[in-house]
Amino acid sequence: MSLAYPLQAGRMLRILIADDHDVVRSGLRTVLEARADWAVVGEARDGKEAIQLANQTKPDIIVVDYGLPVINGIEVTRQIKARHAQVEILMFTMHDDETLVAQALEAGARAYLLKTDARAHLLAAVESLAAHKPFFTGQISQTLLNSFLSSRPIQRKDALAPRERIVVQLIAEGHSNREISEILHVSIKTVEAQRASAMKKLQVTSTAALVRYAIRNKFIQP
Question: How many structural domains compose the chain?
Fold first, then answer.
């Protein structure tokens, strides 16, 4: 169930939070609403709710957890930016993997913050996005720099494409091909093709192996 909050009087910076942990959402909301001119206009527990609430509340900034259930943070970012180009998105995650950073940027996020850095940098990240400026901590900047200096693409050749990743995530969450097609608004044939492509890239031959891969790479929590 999604939670929505009315705006306070006057022009406020409108912020939407999308994270599947109640404690994390509550903590973020407390910190953000300590600013008199900032208002949290909604909370979402999964990616589908995040997209719905973005359409309903028209936020200025969305704090998006990468590891959202149903639709992950990368796909949430891509879909929201396609519909609301002016929205600024902060990718909020436990992982500093270079592939995830690259995919977040490609999807349209302009800030990437590790959850371990939230206490020190959350307000600065939101302030930067409010001014339509990107924000990266030193650790994430170093990750990007290392990739640039390594003379190899930031996207590994064997990495799954963004849509393949979300299909694998949904399979690992127990969704059928038909359910995945309804969630992603694509045909069942498209889902089957993306599933087959992912299995070929990963060199696996069973759903159980896909689930193990998803857990090992933190697409879902075991």
Answer: 2
